[in-house]
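# step 3/5: fold
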Amino acid sequence: MMSSLYDIFGHFLELNPAEQQKSYVDSADFTAVRAVEFIEKNYDKDLSVNDIAKAVNISRKHLYNVFNDMFNIPPKQYLIYYRLEKACMRLKGSSSSIQEIAESVGYASQFYFAKEFKRLMKVTPSAYRKEPLPSEVFSYHMYVPAARADKRQGDFETGQNKKIFHDLDE
């Protein structure tokens, strides 16, 4: 009887093979992609590093390690930079108030938003709106492939990537 059951289960497995996971360089890349996708979909909400880690089913510490390996910054910094990038786009492309833009990118307080914006962009949101800088804060979609290639060569902290991260961390 057991033999018959194994045959039946074997037949079902042949008819419905397990779905293959997309291939990524390694599981850290896969985790980073999932975390970034979660941030992109939820950056406008009250979002913490714990929320991101929970969404991708890993610990906060593991998420921190994945982001440091992939982007050379902690996940909290990535979230801040991503929000400011979106804020820059909205400041240039709309006439919404600073309060509305702050809320639309996940900041409950326009004053905290303005403080973070000034700290990283070196200008206030109002000044940025009047005279936008030539480029956005950054876009990881542009830097990730280069960063991964540089990292594989052991040279991530050199060149333009170092300048970008250094400027943003000040």
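# step 4/5: annotate
The two ends are 70 Å apart (CA to CA).
# step 5/5: archive (pending)
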